[in-house]
Write a structure and sequence with these properties.
With 418 residues, the protein is of the alpha/beta class. It has 2 domains: 10-126 and 318-325, NAD(P)-binding Rossmann-like Domain (Rossmann fold, 3-Layer(aba) Sandwich); 128-301 and 332-382, Dihydrodipicolinate Reductase, domain 2, CATH 3.30.360. The chain has 14 helices and 15 strands.
């Protein structure tokens, strides 16, 4: 049900003071009022709460009892679904960072919890909301390049080991063991958003751990370098998702229709959009190639000041609008689950010689029943027979050099655990 007072601030609490900072900054810009923050790292939590003038909680259950309307989950990648279910059950709207769920069973529980609660669920995948991706959606929806046939999404993000260690304190921090196919939503989401399609089947491939690459051997990460997912979409189009720590930092999206192609540029200003029509197919007077830098369709000034190419503003903006109208956002729980379990199923595929795996549609309760007990996970804390490794090569032990560097970097961040 819509909020009857559209001018009343939406009182929101944020879980996670690291990544959560961007949501804290975006709150006032989108008509939300930050009232509480929650984190188990007390040394960081208390100063942040004091600086922001908000209540602080170490205990999540106590946090949920705070007088607020909505919760933003910026906690660890593999812990979002259980936290979201608890918040929904407590009567809170939820915006969740990626991934929506870490297992298929969690995806089932999350879909049911959203339906049962009647509350808004927003999947905070920010890459669809760059200016060029929003413009490609507009062009595609207007039929400019015809029917979607093939697409590519890339999220390539290499860093030196010191930087990676600085954001992954602790041997079993999720960034140190998550398989290479799991962190796939930044590359899959823009293509789904532009074309209104979903993956129905995936084949997963990985570029194995490189023992000659110091960004791997001096890091505590035990997973592979990168993942490639080939997706069969529900309109029979094919999409390639590439994501990981290969050299060549960048985010790229390409959409081939049966009347043209569009993509963001790989050279120079990468926020420019390139649209191509074949000479024999374009309208008279229409250029074969058009290259331009699109503006955001709305709130350009505020979006350009936000992180992740403006995406951090638009996720908060659409979350607030959904709460006010009572209508689920475009990036609803089902699309969030689709994007997230594509990476899980791709890992199943990769360790099965890249055999095709279905991406079940959890909009359908009869399908959900099949997966409600599926707890297949490489999480070191969930180890039991039948659970998968983090690398295609099996279990990898970090080098002595990686452990020594990690200890030094983690101490500089105020973390003294293992």
């Amino acid at each position: 049900m819509a909020d009857n007072n559209k001018h009343k601030p939406i009182r929101v609490g944020v879980v996670g003071v690291g990544r959560g900072r961007s949501f804290m900054r975006a709150a006032a810009e989108t008509g939300m009022e930050l009232v509480a923050i929650c984190d188990t790292w007390e040394e960081r939590l208390r100063p942040e709460g004091k600086a922001l003038g908000v209540s602080t909680y170490v205990d999540y259950q106590a946090f949920l009892e705070h007088d607020m309307d909505a919760v933003v989950l910026a906690n660890y990648f593999h812990e979002h679904a259980p936290f979201a279910v608890e918040a929904l059950n407590a009567g809170k709207h939820v915006m969740s960072e990626t991934a929506a769920c870490h297992t298929l069973g969690e995806g089932v529980a999350l879909a049911r919890a959203v339906e049962r609660s009647g509350k808004i669920y927003m999947f905070a995948e920010n890459y669809p909301y760059t200016a060029y991706n929003q413009e490609m959606r507009r062009l595609y929806q207007n039929g400019h390049v015809g029917e979607f046939k093939y697409g590519e999404g890339e999220y390539v993000h290499p860093d030196p080991p010191e930087v990676k260690l600085g954001r992954s304190c602790g041997r079993n921090h999720w960034r140190n063991w998550i398989p290479s196919t799991y962190y796939c939503t930044h590359s899959i989401a823009p293509v789904m958003y532009i074309t209104d399609t979903r993956p129905v089947k995936v084949n997963g491939f990985v570029i194995p751990y490189d023992f000659g690459d110091m960004t791997k051997t001096l890091h505590m990460n035990r997973a592979d370098i990168a993942g490639v997912i080939i997706c069969r979409m529900d309109n029979d189009a094919v999409m390639k998702s590439l994501h990981g720590a290969l050299r060549g930092h960048g985010n790229y999206v390409r959409i081939h229709g049966n009347k043209g192609v569009m993509e963001n540029c790989r050279n120079g200003d990468k926020h420019r959009l390139r649209v191509w029509k074949e000479p024999w197919e374009k309208r008279k007077g229409e250029p074969v190639e058009t290259v331009y830098r699109p503006d955001f369709p709305v709130h350009h000034d505020r979006a350009t000041q936000a992180g992740h190419g403006g995406g951090d503003f638009f996720t908060s903006y659409h979350f607030a609008e959904a709460i006010r109208t009572g209508e689920q956002p475009y990036l609803d729980v089902y699309r969030g689950i689709d994007m997230s379990i594509a990476g899980i199923q791709a890992w199943r595929s990769a360790i099965s010689d890249s055999a095709p795996m279905e991406v079940p549609d959890f909009r359908d309760e009869s399908i959900r029943k099949k997966y409600e007990r599926d707890d297949w996970s490489p999480d070191p804390t969930r180890k039991k027979p039948g659970q998968p490794p983090s690398s295609i090569l099996g279990e990898i032990e970090p080098s002595d050099g990686a452990k020594a560097l990690a200890k030094k970097v983690w101490a500089s961040r105020g973390y003294f655990g293992e």
